[in-house]
Design goal:
alpha+beta; 60s Ribosomal Protein L30, Chain: A; isoprene biosynthesis
Amino acid sequence: MRIGQGYDVHRMVQGRRLILGGVEIPCEKGLFGHSDADVLIHAVMDALLGAAALGDIGALFPDSDPAFQNADSILLLQKVCGLLKEKRYHIVNLDSTVIAQAPRLSPFVPRMRERIAAACEISVDRVSVKATTEERLGFTGAGKGIAAQAVCLIDSAVPNEMR
């Protein structure tokens, strides 16, 4: 078994859609980035890549490559999960937290979990997504950006459902 940890942050800007966990969230601002800037999916990908010692998303999907301009991060997550499969790893579980003062994310969490689970080809009960504020402290508390953290456990043993 191997543990991975991921973190990502993007700043809020006008004129961009807000995508978190593969779900579009109604908001007057979105996250700035080369791809769709989905901080939650980016943190999840880095956790998975870290657990498997396969680098990070910056190395796999560099922002200098026009192929990833406005890329759908869910599709990138599918590629990361494909790499894990090639290395014969399976995901035991994913746990993540989005740190944002606004908008309120709890109504969207079930759909985020479903999107992540589908992209990873695992059951939704293996995916946890939480949201919290920072009580108006720091850049996330001021609404200047959104951050996300993720932790995962992967295993190279054959999962129970495949035995």
